[in-house]
Amino acid sequence: MIRKEINKISEVGKALISVEGNPGVALNHVVELLEAESGQSLSFAKAINITEDSTRFQVFNGTTGLSTRTKIRMHEVPLTAGFSTKMLGRSFDGSGAVADGGPEIIFEKEVSTRLDTLNPTVRNVPKQALWTGIPMIDVFNTLVKSQKIPIFAGPTEPYNRLLSQIAQGAQADVIIFAGIGLKFDEYQYFKDQLSQSGNIDKTIMFTHLAGDSQIKGLMLPDVALSVAREFGDQGKDVLVLLTDMTNWSNILRNVANYQDMIPSLQGYPGSLYSELAKRYEVAADIEGAGSITIIGATTLESLEDPVPDNTGYITEGQFFLENGKLKLARSLSRLKQGVNGKTRSDHRAIMTAMASLLADAEKAHEASEVGAANDPYSQKLLRYRTDFIDNIEEPFGEPIELEAALDKCWAILKRHFDPTETGLSKKLIEEYWDKN
Amino acid sequence: MNDINKKRTGNLISIQDSLVKARFFDDVIMGETAEIAVDGKFLQAEVLQILPDPKNADAGIVEMQVFEDLTGAKIGDEVVFKGTPLSVLLGPGLLTSVWDGLQNPLYKLSEEDAYLKPGMNAPALDEEALWDFTPSAKVGDTVTGGDVIGSVPEGKVDHKILVPFSFGPCKVESIIEKSSVNITQQVAVVVDELGNKRELKLAFRQPVKSPIPFRERSIPKHPISTGTRVIDLLAPVGYGGTVGNPGPFGAGKTVLQHSLCKYAVADIIIMAACGERAGEAVEVFKEFAELEDPTTGESLMKRMCIFGNTSSMPVAAREASVFIALTVGEYYRYQGKKVVLLADSTSRWAQALRERSGRQGDIPGPEAFPMDIPDQIKGMYQRAGEDLGTKGSLTFIGTVSPAGGNFQEPVTQATMDSTGGFWGLSQDRADAKKYPAIDPLVYTTSVYDGFVTWKDRQKMLSTLNEANDIDQTISTIGLKKVPVSNYVQFQKGLTIDFCVMQQDAFDKVDACTRPERLEVINRAVQNLIDSDISFEADGMDDEQLKEMIKHKFDELRQWWKDWNYSATTEEQLAQLPNAIDKFILQEEYAV
């Protein structure tokens, strides 16, 4: 097939190029950029804005080195991602090209990266817990298969360590690692961890390093999620790790600004919510097929920043990491109610009781900072708070089973309170108080 | 009237995300719908603006928003204008349905593909289902838009068959006998004043952006039993009322919405899942089907219909979904039904408008929302109301998802300006895992006497307020310096908050409190507030006394919480006021 070519680029900007007139290219279709003389392939690009007077493209490899004489060859197909089970154990870049120096892969099929919405009627109601061995998650905010949930953390928090710890313990057939704007050592850390835990053979890594072309970072989640979705459609339980979605959102912001879009909050485009939702909503438990669970990382300075704020409205809860601890007050798993009623009879009650006491304890702690909270009960609360932070909010350590974690909770309550102070029902007190 | 038989077309000259421009030579009507042919598929669009063509004086340019993904669209692709504005199909079969934002039936579409692809569509209502039609109009009767010509049973709902609202006065020329018909069959023929014959079916299309009128509008004042105590006690919503329900993420908006779906006493519940998580809509239509409607004993889905325009679906359809849901609500109100519409979330709806106006290059208002967003929000809530003429009502409860949890942002502010009620969810209460996190101190209601009198409500509030103030004092100066009497007051407020304002949405008994039970609780609460309890202080210093008081109240709260979870019989219900009386007298009350 002879492909149509365009011979003149009229505008070259940051990540974007334009041609004059209407060459007949369709929206979101792919073109290839070729060096004028040698015909050597320089990059692929995607048509994003078409009028009868001009056509604008996002250039995957960046625009440095392009000239007005660079040729554009039209491929007349939308962007797809290559799919093959041979991708397991391998590393790719944001456009799905092999990036580990290994042999090229002959793909079994090309999958659409448009991320069409799954028909909601084909979704199963999530009902299966994913146990992590981390009490703060298993007892208080149980993770559920098909959940989409980010870790909210300051930029210096060990969020990648936590992400990797959850990934290692999780029962998944396939792990898709999607790293955007990563530092090299972060990438290597994940690779080493996955290798050590023996999970590398069921992992596909898509990596965009800080400083790589922005468009490749922008498209990375779509490529990674399309591949994940194909595994899900084939009946596999897939775990996707997206880190860090704040980097991704910042690329989105940059590109939106290059495209002269009107910014809404802090320079982000008004579509930030919809753009994040489109990716996170890929998480699903699919009727008659597999499932896709997404755990993301969202770095933040403040919870009110547009990225964590919009993310919180999209995802099914969040794990909040602060000073290396998983904080109960700000963490939430929205799907936990679907699974924690079928565990031990005290699970829900102890979760509520400890949370409520902790909230009181936080108040006592605030009061103690200004010299108040000297009464005996406040003192109890303060001791409880310390115990809770050290023993429950600590995510790193030997994994423990749910029952043991629940027993640990009873022991903490008993160390500090009288039964009536816990707000727990008489029945549960009789059943569990003296056992621990 | 435009000649709808003449095909009017245009061709694309600009494509950007979901916004396109086309050149046309005939005529285009503002707000009409259109279809764009892309790769052999037909994508739905709506006219937003009509402009002159700077390149061709004989032509015009039309700007449209497209409700589906435009991948593959090219310059020159044909646009066919439909002549009709965005509309909804109204008729029997609406209940139990699950649609996307444009009324495409999702179960039907799933037969074609597990994924929603551009160009997919199916009839909004089942065209084969048969309905038992009983005529009520007779040949020779004069009828006009909105008049009833017959009815069909739709589950337990008596579904009235109406003359389409756009019709003027007509004479019934013929009407079928009692029989089983589907929605495509003719049930009557009417003749308008000009002598034009028009056929009537069980279903008809209705434009969604202009409201269906009221017969006789009134002020909502009859409270809805929602089953949620803090609402029914402090911030009741009346049939036909409006409520804005803002809260930061994680504050429990969704759980509250689901609870309203389950327990609000109404004939019909419409859910517009607008730009929110798909999983939440799925939970409703998959799990609620198994739950019982408190009034009819049937599956909850039998009184519901759902528009699931979830967050990853095309943004333009988000705006449409709320108007479509409102129009369905107005249609049932016109039939005399009590309808509750839950829109989750109106912020996503406003964001859809923001995305669009940004693309259109409009000058942005605060936070880049369109300048006229407050008016648009007001207009939307105004469509709710009670109709004395039909005895129907449409109650509109909209959630708001304020950016950063900040209630000062434009959508929350405009909502507060537009609604009669306001249920503010607080981050602090949510962090303390208090459900519902409706702050008893941040709410408004337009219903004067609800399930309890205004006076009782005010007493409850001032006790909560006072307890809150004392709590802050304790936090700043320490418990030691707070007088014992104040401490007792604080404990009373704490008890009312913990045992009454908080509720367990996942417990069978506690999840829903009906008026009879509310009455019992209110009696107990009022007695507790009025009480003057003398705690024995033999040889105790203040600190020990406070310890003892706290212990006694802890016991009471535990007892009361157990009662919340267990008391169902009349006898068990009576235990609460008894226990409070005994507690006040410092007698043994445990049973």
From TrEMBL, chain A:
<keyword id="KW-0813">Transport</keyword>
<comment type="function">
    <text>Produces ATP from ADP in the presence of a proton gradient across the membrane. The V-type beta chain is a regulatory subunit.</text>
</comment>
<protein>
    <submittedName>
        <fullName>V/A-type H+-transporting ATPase subunit B</fullName>
    </submittedName>
</protein>
<dbReference type="InterPro" id="IPR027417">
    <property type="entry name" value="P-loop_NTPase"/>
</dbReference>
<dbReference type="Pfam" id="PF22919">
    <property type="entry name" value="ATP-synt_VA_C"/>
</dbReference>
<dbReference type="InterPro" id="IPR000194">
    <property type="entry name" value="ATPase_F1/V1/A1_a/bsu_nucl-bd"/>
</dbReference>
<dbReference type="GO" id="GO:0046034">
    <property type="term" value="P:ATP metabolic process"/>
</dbReference>
<feature type="domain" description="ATPase F1/V1/A1 complex alpha/beta subunit nucleotide-binding">
    <location>
        <begin position="133"/>
        <end position="323"/>
    </location>
</feature>
<feature type="domain" description="ATP synthase A/B type C-terminal">
    <location>
        <begin position="339"/>
        <end position="432"/>
    </location>
</feature>
<dbReference type="GO" id="GO:1902600">
    <property type="term" value="P:proton transmembrane transport"/>
</dbReference>
<comment type="similarity">
    <text>Belongs to the ATPase alpha/beta chains family.</text>
</comment>
<dbReference type="InterPro" id="IPR055190">
    <property type="entry name" value="ATP-synt_VA_C"/>
</dbReference>
<dbReference type="Pfam" id="PF02874">
    <property type="entry name" value="ATP-synt_ab_N"/>
</dbReference>
<feature type="domain" description="ATPase F1/V1/A1 complex alpha/beta subunit N-terminal">
    <location>
        <begin position="16"/>
        <end position="73"/>
    </location>
</feature>
<dbReference type="InterPro" id="IPR022879">
    <property type="entry name" value="V-ATPase_su_B/beta"/>
</dbReference>
<dbReference type="InterPro" id="IPR004100">
    <property type="entry name" value="ATPase_F1/V1/A1_a/bsu_N"/>
</dbReference>
<keyword id="KW-0406">Ion transport</keyword>
<dbReference type="GO" id="GO:0005524">
    <property type="term" value="F:ATP binding"/>
</dbReference>
<dbReference type="Pfam" id="PF00006">
    <property type="entry name" value="ATP-synt_ab"/>
</dbReference>
TrEMBL record, chain B:
<keyword id="KW-0813">Transport</keyword>
<dbReference type="Pfam" id="PF00006">
    <property type="entry name" value="ATP-synt_ab"/>
</dbReference>
<dbReference type="GO" id="GO:0005524">
    <property type="term" value="F:ATP binding"/>
</dbReference>
<dbReference type="InterPro" id="IPR000194">
    <property type="entry name" value="ATPase_F1/V1/A1_a/bsu_nucl-bd"/>
</dbReference>
<keyword id="KW-0406">Ion transport</keyword>
<feature type="domain" description="ATPase F1/V1/A1 complex alpha/beta subunit nucleotide-binding">
    <location>
        <begin position="227"/>
        <end position="441"/>
    </location>
</feature>
<comment type="function">
    <text>Produces ATP from ADP in the presence of a proton gradient across the membrane. The V-type alpha chain is a catalytic subunit.</text>
</comment>
<dbReference type="InterPro" id="IPR027417">
    <property type="entry name" value="P-loop_NTPase"/>
</dbReference>
<protein>
    <submittedName>
        <fullName>V/A-type H+-transporting ATPase subunit A</fullName>
    </submittedName>
</protein>
<keyword id="KW-0547">Nucleotide-binding</keyword>
<feature type="domain" description="ATPsynthase alpha/beta subunit barrel-sandwich">
    <location>
        <begin position="123"/>
        <end position="209"/>
    </location>
</feature>
<dbReference type="InterPro" id="IPR022878">
    <property type="entry name" value="V-ATPase_asu"/>
</dbReference>
<dbReference type="Pfam" id="PF16886">
    <property type="entry name" value="ATP-synt_ab_Xtn"/>
</dbReference>
<dbReference type="GO" id="GO:0046961">
    <property type="term" value="F:proton-transporting ATPase activity, rotational mechanism"/>
</dbReference>
<dbReference type="InterPro" id="IPR031686">
    <property type="entry name" value="ATP-synth_a_Xtn"/>
</dbReference>
<dbReference type="GO" id="GO:0046034">
    <property type="term" value="P:ATP metabolic process"/>
</dbReference>
<keyword id="KW-1278">Translocase</keyword>
<comment type="similarity">
    <text>Belongs to the ATPase alpha/beta chains family.</text>
</comment>
<keyword id="KW-0067">ATP-binding</keyword>
